[in-house]
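Field reference: sequence -> structure
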Amino acid sequence: MDKIKIAIVGIGNCASSLVQGINYYQDKTPSEAIGLMHWEIGGYKPYDVEVVAAFDIDSRKVGREIVEAIFAPPNCTAVFCDNLSKTGAKVSMGKVLDGFSEHMKHYDDKSTFVLSECPEPTKEEVVRILRESGTEILINYLPVGSEEATGFYAECAIDAGVAFINCIPVFIASNPLWAEKFKQNNLPIIGDDIKAQLGATITHRMLADLFKKRGVKIERTYQINTGGNTDFLNMLNRSRLFSKKESKTEAVQSILPDRMDDENIHIGPSDYVPWQKDNKVAFIRMEGKLFGDVPMNIELRLSVEDSPNSAGVTIDAIRCCKLALNTKKGGVLYSPSAYFMKHPPRQFSDDEAYRMTEEYIEGKRSE
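Structure field:
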């Protein structure tokens, strides 16, 4: 199979886990391939992905080989594959816009960005890099709250004629205007806001679905998350959190038989704990009533390495997007978006989204 050529915006922890994973599975057999939802999609294995271009704004990453840049500070995720083959692809200077929060300048270099002094590219220059590198799919890993920067790269993807996978909670695929732009240009898009393989949101959704199926009335619930990576540091600026909270909250609300009042549901990042690094700890509580209006509650603590937890989902999204490119199918890919993303254009239960995505992979469903 030809390689699926991708470019990445934002060489942070998520990009690090994705690049490591592409290399990690190269010498694995299907029986040894632990941690994958699919070994093969449309004939493509996990290692049939090649990163041919990247963009970042940190001086410790710009200009370096991608396989080196993924280990530069402030990245702090688990290193599970450090024997990476150089490809010659380097990190280009990206567009700053709202790609990082001003408050992050006040932290030490190990925790935050060191803004590169390289000139920012124009849209035409980004488009040229995407075209010359042979990029087929652009992956958006910008920080939460990067509304302008995400729009900029979405436009670049359209102008360059490449597909787009939006892994962050800025609404592109779920925005009808953006969705129509990609459809008109016959380019596939998957989004928005990547789900973890087994993270807080998917666990919360499954519990909510369990309550519904077992006839338990949910009266109140919260999900509180802490972490020590730059994602959590960035989200200390609460003004950047609107879309993140909406994405995570709607992912749970959409499962419930009756929408909960805002005062009875709280879901969102809580605090930055530096020593946690890329480890994310989630606390979930659900209160409800059983038969005879008898009260009950459940509390759960989930601890995961945040970035590898999403990379396995992204590698499936990439391969599903490639299937659409091969069949020249443009616009929103509703089935993969519903299964892989927290805030897809159309919400389905996880069982239904799983079935739809399997049908899509088998060629029984076009989108």
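Note: The two ends are 23 Å apart (CA to CA).
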